[in-house]
């Protein structure tokens, strides 16, 4: 718009438009929510959905430990954001103390809280270490089910010595019955883990480890190798079928009707590396197979007589002296 005040024309620029009120941006919050949903949808939270007593105690320990960590982390994050806002440069009401150096109250807080946490965790660790000891048998009026586990490349072998049957990549157990596992490995170290039933334990060649678990509810529970062990690791998993005692007995009879026998040649075939092996049952097992797998790595120490003879053979003059004397 033009205004003629003198002979010259003065062009008056239009007044700048007032800035529009910025609408709240919900992109970040929406993205955060969607990410959380996607992350949770891909995780069945097995550790937080236990189906046995050991699993329940493990869950409680995880929840308690997480709570202790959050009791420290959340206040620290909150105070960090609060101090950044409270003492921002534009806040003239904040107290400016460039020569401040010490506060007894702050010293008490930053030292007393960690000390209390350390003492609490010490008691908790001592208590749960003994209660959740994988070698500790479970207290029950029901006799335990003995299962011998062999970690192979890349499959799991389960031997039931009380029933004389075995299976590959499938574990069958009765509900409410303690399971006494003995574990070893054919070659490299591995880790046996059924998340919903509780603790994991390592299986090592030439050694025997133990684990005691129980399934309190019928169902199918995912089992896995929780230690990377090579090319076929991704397929080294199995299902644990927890059923009633009657259904478990039916499975035993079904296994005994199998045409396969787990003898020495068959086991030698299982030791060969293979991936995604199908579930297989064996009607009978070679006597003392589990112990023979462990003992083949043992080197028998030479006897005293053999040692003396070998030493004498190395030094004939010493052997002559011994004979003379």
Cα-to-Cα separation, first versus last residue? 134 Å
State the strand order across the main sheet: 10-7-3-4-5-14
Parts with pLDDT < 50 across at least 5 consecutive residues: 1-43, 309-313, 315-325
- Secondary-structure element order, N to C: EEHHHEEEEEEEEEEHEHEEHHH
**β-strand amount:** 15-25%
Number of helical elements? 8
The profile of the biggest β sheet is: 6 strands, mixed
Shape: elongated
Number of strands: 15
Roughly how many Å is the radius of gyration? Answer: 34 Å
What is the averaged pLDDT score?
83
Characterization of the model:
The protein contains eight helices and 15 strands. With about 325 residues, the chain is an alpha+beta fold. The strands form four sheets. The chain has a six-stranded mixed beta sheet with strand order 10-7-3-4-5-14. The radius of gyration is 34 Å and the shape is elongated. Helix 7 (about 305-315) packs across helix 8 (about 315-325). About 40% of the residues lie in helices and about 20% in strands.
Keywords:
elongated; disordered N terminus; disordered C terminus; alpha+beta; 325 residues; six-stranded mixed sheet; 21% strand
Spell out the blueprint of helices and strands.
Elements (H helix, E strand, L loop, with lengths): L1 E3 L4 E3 L15 H15 L11 H34 L17 H28 L13 E8 L2 E6 L4 E4 L1 E5 L4 E7 L4 E4 L7 E3 L5 E5 L5 E7 L11 E7 L1 H12 L4 E2 L1 H7 L9 E3 L1 E2 L3 H7 L8 H11 L1 H9 L1
């Amino acid at each position: 718009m033009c205004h003629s005040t003198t002979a010259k024309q003065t062009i008056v620029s239009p007044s700048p438009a007032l800035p529009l009120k910025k609408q709240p941006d919900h992109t970040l919050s929406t993205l955060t929510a969607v990410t959380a949903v996607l992350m949770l949808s891909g995780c069945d939270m097995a550790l937080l959905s236990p189906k046995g007593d050991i699993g329940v105690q493990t869950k409680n320990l995880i929840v308690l430990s997480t709570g202790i960590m959050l009791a420290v982390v959340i206040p620290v994050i909150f105070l960090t954001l609060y101090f950044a806002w409270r003492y921002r440069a534009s806040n003239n009401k904040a107290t400016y103390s460039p020569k401040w150096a010490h506060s007894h109250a702050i010293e008490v807080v930053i030292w007393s809280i960690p000390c209390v946490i350390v003492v609490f965790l010490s008691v908790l660790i001592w208590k749960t270490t003994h209660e959740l000891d994988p070698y500790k048998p479970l207290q029950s009026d029901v006799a335990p089910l003995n299962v011998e586990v062999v970690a192979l490349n890349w499959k799991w072998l389960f031997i039931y010595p009380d029933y004389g049957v075995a299976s590959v990549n499938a574990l069958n157990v009765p509900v409410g019955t303690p399971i006494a596992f003995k574990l070893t490995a054919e070659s490299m170290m591995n880790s046996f883990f059924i998340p919903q039933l509780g603790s994991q334990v390592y299986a090592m060649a030439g050694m025997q480890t133990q684990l005691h678990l129980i399934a309190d509810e019928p169902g199918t529970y995912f089992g896995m190798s929780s230690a990377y062990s090579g090319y076929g690791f991704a397929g080294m998993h199995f299902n644990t079928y927890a059923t009633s005692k009657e259904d478990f007995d039916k499975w035993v009879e079904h296994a005994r009707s199998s045409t396969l026998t787990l003898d020495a040649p068959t086991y030698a075939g299982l030791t060969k590396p293979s991936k995604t092996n199908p579930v297989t049952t064996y009607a009978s097992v070679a006597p003392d197979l589990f112990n023979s797998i462990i003992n083949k790595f043992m080197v028998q120490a030479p006897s005293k007589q053999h040692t003396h003879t070998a030493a004498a053979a190395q030094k004939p003059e010493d052997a002559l002296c011994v004979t003379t004397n």
